[in-house]
Predict the structure.
Amino acid sequence: MRLNRINNNDLEAFRLMVGPDRFSIGESVLNLHSKDQSRHSPSLPEAVIWPMNASEIAEILRYANEHLIPVTAWGSGSSLEGNPIPVEGGLVLDFSQMNRILDIREEDFQADVEPGVIYKDLNKKLRHKGLFFAPDPGADATLGGMIANNSSGTRTVRYGSTRDNILRLSVVLANGEIIHTGSRSSKSSSGYDLVRLFVGSEGTLGLVVEATVRLVGIPGEFSAAIVTFPTVESAGRAVYEIIRSGMNPSALELLAPECIELINREHELGLKVAPTLFMEYDGPSVQQLAELLDMTKEICEEVGCDEFRPGLGMTERDRLFKARHELAEIIMRNHPGCSHMAIDIAVPITAYPEMIAMAIEDRKNSGIPTYIFSHAGDGNLHIVFEGKTGDEKEWAVIEEMNERIISKALSMDGTATGEHGVGIGKRRFMAAEHGNSLEWMKKIKTLFDPNGILNPGKIFE
Amino acid sequence: MRLNRINNNDLEAFRLMVGPDRFSIGESVLNLHSKDQSRHSPSLPEAVIWPMNASEIAEILRYANEHLIPVTAWGSGSSLEGNPIPVEGGLVLDFSQMNRILDIREEDFQADVEPGVIYKDLNKKLRHKGLFFAPDPGADATLGGMIANNSSGTRTVRYGSTRDNILRLSVVLANGEIIHTGSRSSKSSSGYDLVRLFVGSEGTLGLVVEATVRLVGIPGEFSAAIVTFPTVESAGRAVYEIIRSGMNPSALELLAPECIELINREHELGLKVAPTLFMEYDGPSVQQLAELLDMTKEICEEVGCDEFRPGLGMTERDRLFKARHELAEIIMRNHPGCSHMAIDIAVPITAYPEMIAMAIEDRKNSGIPTYIFSHAGDGNLHIVFEGKTGDEKEWAVIEEMNERIISKALSMDGTATGEHGVGIGKRRFMAAEHGNSLEWMKKIKTLFDPNGILNPGKIFE
């Protein structure tokens, strides 16, 4: 189905739907909605609307569907695979004004939110109730963006990804229909699980306008440790041994020396520049955590760590988490004139040491600035390459490494994307990863959005 | 689409596909595959096949799809809502010979299994490796049946339902196509989540022929307690207070006195006949568990419990779990000449005390044998009514209570079925629960199975 450009009649129609204050075709606004934090080329939308509620969005989609106008949802633009870039132009719906926390039912461990809520703001609001929403992708991600990409982060090793923490969704479909799916019960066997179908669908099946999220109690006690190793490989082996021991850390992050150097510089952390594991346990009692750290220390020493530094205070831990969350941005800032490629593979934990070794080898051979860090406890490995923008030779090398690493991960029963989503950059790996089930994903797409107006050009090639 | 009866040509074709040993039209075989453990009327299949592998099933489905012959998958027949009853006749595929554990990758906490594996057998095999598959519906459920119904059980409050513990599926679709979906990575944001779409679809979208399941380490320490209360309502309030405290028990079961009486009689447990909570904590250290039980005791005493008996030994705990798992069967055995209706609502935990109160009130008014027990920690309440088979007056009363209780649960944002699935018995509540998202479930059904040959007459009216 060929999509249309927005003509003057359409512009007028859209403007009338929401009024002039929440509609823009201004150049700077279009520019702001033309790219995310990825290397992918910007693409301008033709108009931006800030919707306020489901019925407005329903009206907009009915019109867009009838006139074959692309519609792409926009959270905070923090995604890393071009997920919200309006590659076919059309309309961008910026959800930043649908940012109300509608209800917090603390005794049910649930909150109802609009998609424009930034998850950090939700957690600020929840803190004095002793609760939090666990998935933490870093950046200023919105709940809507997190739902679209099934985002996760440092605490996913313990608390799951966004998909595991969503109970109920209200969604506007391409035809303007509003549906509610899921329930507020913590479990259900009632019909097909549409909630988890929409989570991770990157705005290609429908637009989420409200979500009921699951909350978690803030644990009584935390205990964090920093461990340095002689090599990234040995740190990787320690990760594998910790996970297979079943000790269930609440964070288990690996940072290669080049990452430590950067966060030292920007956050004055004074960490030893070495392959580093940053780990955290949480639980109800100090003694239990001390036991866990003792067992972890034993494992790390057997693998041959250099230094095991337990008992990080809350302040130091918070600074470290903050630095870790900002790492991707820090890397970008430190390479002006470069574009970056972020690998996001995830593999079964037994395959993890081999993936690390491969990344190290590739870096050695290429000479291109490469940053290795990972949500190691999930087998989720990030490798960020910084290539000079426009340097075709360098980018050919990066593309080749990207291809090799992802193919290797797939051959080990892993996935091309652990948490960033498919967007633009991972589309070409979908056939290799999913085989003919990819065709069934396309059929589901066509079922929900027969004209292909919702976030066209994503997930599928 | 009108489905066909199996004619002699079809019979011959099916027989040739698998050979005479794994094909039957014998009366006793057909009878054995005509009903599950529910009250729903038996319905005979016209033939039964015991398939051995995916390609056989693909061939069978291609033929059945072309000739519009109903095909219903069969695990162990332990379901409670008529889920596998072949209401339109046709072919039953009995998976009992596809019961191989294909691979246990203990260091990845994963196993690959065929659908006919009984979960208890898997757990027996895993025990000496210190691992287990957490969902525990009781009975002799097969993995395939558990996947079909998104089954759960006593430990779901801690470890999730079947849906949360499946990573990857191989599925034969109605047209005979074999697809593989998901990966062996513990997390992924790669395309639409077809795995969780198939889990809970009750064999209506495709037939699972292989699954990669997530395993959990057997915790180092357990501590269990039995607590009695003056009323079921006060026990229900204690459940609510324990859950909202965030203490995360690994089991939190409520049993009304009539259930205690039955399991005492059958298992000689000598328990006090009173409203009872049976709870368990697990974790790495004895001291941590002692602390949790102390906090739980405080809560129960504040609510006004009669007796708090902590420190149950492993033997007593195992006997209690066994009795709890067999409870549904014990109830049935004790009411010869009766049929039973099993309510399986689940609600947000704040709504739980009110649901309990309503059930008690209904029992008082009706005079019909009623058993109240529940996976209380999940807000999942079972109420089993035993009505004389064929007694229309009694059954009208039961139907009315069923209707009232489910409607109440839905009005409190709960679900009509927490773990038994929709099958036949909960179909008529689907419209009320899902609104117009039910139409989208139907469209997905039609997409995957346009002729409607897979388990016809289930989920949808």
